[in-house]
Each structure stands twice: as structure tokens, then as C-alpha cells.
Amino acid sequence: MMTTANHLDATKQPIKQAGFNPHSVASPLGIGSGQVDLNRALDPGLFYDHTPQDLVDLVCSMNFTLEQIRGIIRSSYNCSSPSPDLNYPLFIALYNFDQSGVTLTKRFKRTLTNVGSGAATYRMKLEKPENSTVTVTPTTLVFGKKYEKQSYSLSIRYIEDTETGVRHGSLTWIEETGKYVVRSPIVISGGVDNYG
């Protein structure tokens, strides 16, 4: 449902933030991917698949104690391949600096499964977060048949500034006929802060 959610409101404008600054655009940290669109969720076109072991690998990468891991997973597990990069339709880069002007790069690898009706070609549309460079390779995904998988990588290069805050954008895969639009939020959060 995440990749088919609508980040626009009924007037086709970005969903606005509630609270202190109700006229600014809401970030994915506040609204997730947007409003659920059940019709599109039934036929999403592409799917980010992951297994229970992939979730275990994520938990194992979080520097928890063995007791904490057992408490979270609550079943037998194998922590031999910990990985913080879950095949999930969200890209989030959290930074914590003590000085501005530092450049950091975060890399992600994702695999998409074609769950549409057959062969399909998807082209990338990118909305870069402010003060960042985002690179996606490849920029076109070609699927020869249903249930075929294709992988891509996304790299975020961010130059830290003096403002603490959230910067956001998105990566959207658009099927060449326009039938499927598969959107993933990109979030950069950080600043000169201790997050203590």
C-alpha cells in the first residue's frame, strides 16, 4: 500500500502539515507515504518483497544485546548476516553532526518484483531533497515477464548545513503506458545537534 498511497490532497496539492505551521508541506515522517488508495493497492505493478529473515537481519544490525534481539524476534533466528538495508520502499538517511559543511553519502540497494500483468518498462522520476545529490542506477527497469525481479541502487550525497530539520523528496517508477506509478519517499534528517 505504501508505494500506491497518494501524497496529494483532494485539490491535487501536497498534503499540508498540521499544528504549528499548517501551511507547510508535511514530510513523510509526519504522513508516511500519504493517503491509502485501496484500488491502486490491489494492483500495484511493482512490489518490494522481503522475507522474515530479512527483518531478522535488520534487527540484528541494530546493536541490540542478544536478550533484546530475542525479545523483539520471539522465535529462533540467525544473526549471521546482519544488514541495515531492508528491501523496503523508503529511503531514510539520518545524520548527526557537530559541524556544518560535512558531506556524507548513504547507499541503498533495492529489488522490485513485477506483479503487473506481464512484460513492462518503468522509467524513474526523481524529486531530490534540498541540499542533496541523489543518483539512481539504472534509471530504467525492464521486466520481461510477470514475477521477474530487477534491482537498482540509490545513493544520497548530502552536504550538512546549520539548520536541523527534515528534507524530503521521492523516487517514482512510472510504467511506460502510465498504468502504474510506484512512489517511494526519500527522507534526510539531521543537523548540528546532539540528539541526546
How large is the count of helical segments? 4
Cα(first) to Cα(last) distance is 34 Å
Which ranges are low-confidence, i.e. pLDDT below 50, for 5 or more consecutive residues?
A: 192-196
CATH class of the largest domain: Mainly Beta
Overall structural class, as computed from helix and strand content, comes to: mainly beta
**What is the total tally of β strands?**
9
Q: How would you write the strand order of the largest sheet?
A: 2-9-8-4-6
Share in β-strands? 25-35%
Largest sheet descriptor: 5 strands, mixed
CATH architecture of the largest domain: Sandwich
| Rg (C-alpha, Å) | 18 Å
Q: List the domain count as a whole number.
A: 2
Shape call: globular
What is the averaged pLDDT score?
84
Tell me the series of helices and strands, N- to C-terminal.
HHEHHEEEEEEEE
Which fold name corresponds to the CATH topology of the largest domain?
Answer: Immunoglobulin-like
If you had to describe this structure to a student in words, what would you say it looks like?
The protein is mainly beta and 196 residues long. It has two domains: 2-49 and 87-190, Sandwich (Immunoglobulin-like); 50-85, no CATH class. The chain contains four helices and nine strands; from the N terminus they run ααβααββββββββ. The protein has helices at residues 28-31, 38-42, 52-60, 66-73; strands at 46-47, 91-94, 103-114, 120-127, 132-137, 140-143, 149-159, 165-175, 181-190. Strands 2-9-8-4-6 form a five-stranded mixed beta sheet, with no helix packed on it. A hairpin with a 5-residue loop joins β8 and β9 (181-190). The longest helix is centred in the N-terminal third of the chain and has 9 residues, at 52-60.
